[in-house]
Amino acid sequence: xxxxxxxxxxxxxxxxxxxxxLSKPVCRPHTDTSVAVTFRLEIDEEQRLAELARQDxxxxxxxxxxxxxxxxxxxxxxxxxxxx
Length: 84
Fold this sequence. Notes:
Mean pLDDT: 79
Protein name: Ribbon-helix-helix protein, CopG family
Shape: elongated
Low-confidence stretches: none
Order of helices and strands: HHH
Structural class: mainly alpha
Organism: Herbaspirillum frisingense
């Protein structure tokens, strides 16, 4: 039999070997201090989030955390300036 059926392991390896590598490290919080947060997004919002995270070479989770931290800092500045 000349046609060779690829194994599942080789399929996965081939897919992974063609994936781009991250050029910057992804920082993760310590597991003993992190808290899971659940929220809902509309489909178009999630798609935009996934695209922005991909462009920034981050996981969606890491990118959402970054957005939340930036948003909290902006909110604090608004409160101090009397705009919130």
